[in-house]
What does this fold into?
Amino acid sequence: MLPNKPMPERVKTEPPSTFKRWLKYLRLVFLSLLLLFVSIIFYSLVKYVPPISATVVDATTGKPLPGMNVCLQARISEFGSLKVLREEQTRTNSFGRFSFTASTHPLTPLLQGWEGYTIKVTDPKVKDKLVQPCGGYVTLNYIDERQEVTTKDGTPFYFPVGLVRHLGWNYAYPLGSSNRKMVFPLGAHIPLIPVLQNPEQCQSVRDSSLVGVCRESNGSAAAYFLRRASTPASDSTAH
It folds into this structure.
């Protein structure tokens, strides 16, 4: 018989010391704080305009509106003045859709501040006389009796809409009737308020939250001048 071999002794492993556990924990905390710090620096110095896509529709019928002017503008403040970093214009296609690609905008620390970006949707039949026809906020009082308007095909006029994406701009001008907070979920729709014969017709607006907006817009002086511009008497006077 073979002699019995002694069983090998088990190697005892000591549990990690408390110091080593705390050191591992501190390393993890340090890396997390470093990542957070880098993210904050990146966010403060590099601004991002995401890809944007939406469909412009009639607020009363829900039908797509082709041929509407759409303009995207991103701005910064530099030494107390505004500077445009990106300005891009397009028109809605035959399905009422438009899209803009994404863009990044590095800023100079302490010298430049992010002013955000806006999208302005306007009816090409009503020419905008504002100093900045693309960016900034939309107002209704720029439409007056001297405004150049055309309606050859019998389609209605539509009030302009400004979509704002930045907290600073939100406080700079009240959101509501013509300026709205920019939210673009998948398959987003931007309803435009048509010029109606009277504000009471605004009950036909599909989105109940825009009924008050419709009444305010159609009760404005802008609506009065646009209605007058679309009448045959106005057209004959123009000739």
The domain at 46-238 is CATH 2.60.40.1120 (Immunoglobulin-like). The CA atoms of residues 3 and 9 lie 18 Å apart. The longest strand covers residues 81-91.
